[in-house]
Design brief:
By secondary structure, the protein is an alpha+beta fold. Helices cover 45% and strands 19% of the residues.
Length: 268
């Protein structure tokens, strides 16, 4: 099973929709493939983040009761709960059951579409999904004790490590003189693609700097989330996300040093 095939099965696997043979093949592939293992963990972390954040919507008991009532009212009188089934109609039972199932599925589909796609007051814009992904990536690296794939404070060790693993070469900057020590780097998976994650440390606080190519033009934005600070900007065809529990002033200082170090010569 190739990685593209495996990535198409991740959602079905997490939702328990794969047959036994496909599920076993999927698990066997993941055990042998670090990239797909990381992708699976990313999906799990994103799912946990969404369920605990403002994007998760739980249907009310009132909605459930209204759907049940509508299904019962639309069924034939002798097919309702508590009503005995006439003997003459017994032969029609399979057909009636299929009709009942069809009505139930239709109502459930309508309810799903309404809850999933109809805008609700206070719903966050789509770009907040990426914010949640970045935050989940940072938290996951702290919780899973998988901060780096290449632990090193030497930029000339970390930068070459990414060769052949990504379709771009991330800039790796030594900021130890400014009080931000390079810890190492790793591969991560954000925005539907592999990205570079550079890890720095300020005192006891870790900073994840996520980098990947992008055509977007974005000015610097600071986004506080759940006790963490995220700073996002784009420059010279690359997009950057810095995430940390460091205070916004010091994280902003870190970003200034990164921006100055990655600026082309003679650029403002």
């Amino acid at each position: 099973m190739s990685c593209p095939e495996n990535e198409m099965l991740i959602h079905g696997y997490l939702d328990g929709e794969l047959d036994l043979e496909s599920a076993l093949r999927f698990e066997a592939h993941v055990q042998q493939c670090a990239r797909c293992t990381q992708a699976l963990e990313n999906h799990k972390a994103l799912s946990r983040t969404l369920k605990s954040g403002p994007l998760y919507f739980r249907a009310s008991r009132d909605l459930e009761q209204r759907i049940r009532t509508a299904v019962i009212e639309s069924s034939p009188p002798f097919n309702r709960p508590g009503t005995p089934l006439p003997q003459a109609a017994a032969w029609k039972l399979p057909k009636l059951l299929w009709g009942f199932v069809g009505v139930a599925v239709s109502l459930a589909l309508v309810a799903f579409v309404a809850l999933r796609f109809v805008p609700r007051p206070g719903s966050p814009p789509p770009d907040q999904l990426l914010v949640q992904e970045v935050l989940a990536g940072h938290i996951r690296s702290l919780m899973a004790n998988h901060m780096t794939d290449v632990p090193s404070s030497d930029q000339h060790t970390v930068k070459p490590w990414f060769n052949g693993k990504l379709d771009f070469s991330p800039s790796v900057v030594d900021l130890s003189g400014q009080g931000f020590s390079l810890v190492g780097g790793r591969l991560d998976y954000l925005n539907g693609r592999p990205v570079a994650a550079l890890v720095y440390q300020r005192h006891k606080h870790f900073i994840n700097l996520f980098i990947w190519p992008s055509t977007e033009q974005s000015t610097e934005k600071t986004l506080p989330r759940q006790g963490y600070n995220l700073i996002h900007w784009s420059k010279s065809g690359m997009t950057y996300w810095a995430a940390s529990d460091l205070n916004s002033r010091e994280l902003g200082e870190f970003v200034r040093h990164i921006q100055e170090s990655t600026s082309p010569p003679n650029s403002p």
